[in-house]
């Protein structure tokens, strides 16, 4: 089984990659004609990179219940990848990742926010 600290580090590194990809997509949106999908993909990655970092820090400090906090962090990562990946592929190639990829990613992002809220308000066992 993977240690919690390892999972927190992986999530933190993925957040940094999401941030880098978000900035790259913002640059593409600024310089390419009719690239509104890239702007939306950029926003999703940048916002949720910060959310992953927040979830990691809250979990590491035990302000969020560890199991649920990690689930939320990785939900942000997977949801952001699905949402942004689908929009980016639609922009570049004219087709998405798979049917309902963006809505699935968006739903996962919403559920991850709710999971993070639960992780914060649900008291830990002492």
- Strand-residue proportion: under 5%
Mean pLDDT: 95
Number of helical regions? 4
User: Would you state the CATH class?
Assistant: Mainly Alpha
Tell me which CATH architecture applies here: Up-down Bundle
Record field, number of beta strands:
0
| Molecular shape | elongated
Major sheet summary line: none
The SSE string, one letter per element, is HHHH
Q: How would you characterize the overall build of this protein?
A:
Helices cover 81% and strands 0% of the residues. It is an all-alpha fold and 126 residues long. It has a single domain (4-121), classed as Butyryl-CoA Dehydrogenase, subunit A, domain 3. Helix 1 (4-31) runs parallel beside helix 3 (66-93), helix 2 (36-60) packs antiparallel against helix 3 (66-93) and helix 3 runs antiparallel to helix 4 (101-121). It starts with a helix and ends in a 5-residue tail after the last helix. 39% of the residues are buried. The model has no long low-confidence stretch (mean pLDDT 95).
